[in-house]
Amino acid sequence: MIDNWFINKFESSSFKRSFQASLIKTKFLQASLIRLFILLFIFFSLSGYYPNFGIPPVKKSIVYAQVEQRGEVIAESFAQPVILPHPGYLSTRYSPYHPGVDIASGLGMPIHPINQGVVEEAGTDFFGLGKYVVISHQKGFKSKYAHMGKIYVKVGQEVTTESTIGEVGLTGKTSGPHTHLEITLNEKFIDPQTILPELPNIPLASRDDLPLHSL
Questions:
Q1: CATH number of the domain to which 116 belongs
Q2: The pLDDT of residue 8
Q3: DSSP 97-161
Q4: 39 falls within a domain
Q5: Is the dihedral angle over the CA atoms 195, 196, 201, 202 positive or is it negative?
Q6: How buried is residue 149: exposed, middle or buried, by Cβ count under 10 Å (0-12/13-18/19+)?
Q7: Residue 214's pLDDT is what?
Q8: H/E element holding 2?
Q9: pLDDT tens track for 117-159
Q10: Which helix (H) or strand (E) holds 21?
């Protein structure tokens, strides 16, 4: 009887220690996952990427560029030459995780449409893009300008390459003045560099001087 009592006591104590060890491992794993999530969030934030939590029917940019390039997109699709929205340097290229290009420039730099068109949207995206403008062009092209400091146009307004639609700003998720430019063709993202004039890379000598978000 006494032996059984000691055995039960030992087994109970052993089970308890095992259970406590299991709980400690679970808590450690949870803490590690939380730390990993925070580090990834900081990394993507500093890299200039942004999450999107758009709820239909609101139209917002998506993180993954769902695009299938079908042949070469040429600038001759436009009646007028395509221009850069403003002088600057390429700070972030187009990729499957970044459906546009970032053009670094000075704060307050005037922004012009890449081509003539009609303002389709003008507002604020609270999930990363900040103040933005969408312009509808001919033949199914659209251009989107984000992180603007000021907006000078309204929906339905006709614009040309000489129009000033706003200024380079710091709104949304960004740590440096730049314009996030997206271009779509028939609602599909395309690489803006396939139709834009040549966009220079950031000069190595000035990397320490420019407050860019993606260096």
A1: 2.70.70.10
A2: 60
A3: TB-SEEEE--TT-EE--SS-EEEEEEEEETTTTEEEEEEE-GGGEEEEEEEEEEE---TT-EE-T
A4: no
A5: negative
A6: middle
A7: 47
A8: helix 2-46
A9: 999 999 999 889 999 999 999 999 999 999 999 999 999 999 9
A10: helix 2-46
In a domain, residue 133? The reply is yes
Does residue 113 sit within a domain? Answer: yes
25 pLDDT band, cuts 50/70/90, is confident
Which of 3-7, 8-12, 77-81, 149-153: highest mean pLDDT? 149-153
Number of domains in the chain: 1
Query: What are the tokens at 46?
Result: 């500093």
- Residues comprising the chain, all counted: 215
- Per the domain annotation, does 115 fall within a domain? yes
* Residue 153 amino acid letter: V
At 143 the pLDDT is: 98
Q: Residue 83 burial (CB < 10 Å; 0-12/13-18/19+)?
A: middle
Place of tokens 């146009």: 153
pLDDT at position 171 is 96
pTM above 0.85, yes or no: no
Report CA 185 to chain centroid distance, whole Å: 19
Q: Which domain holds residue 170?
A: 75-206
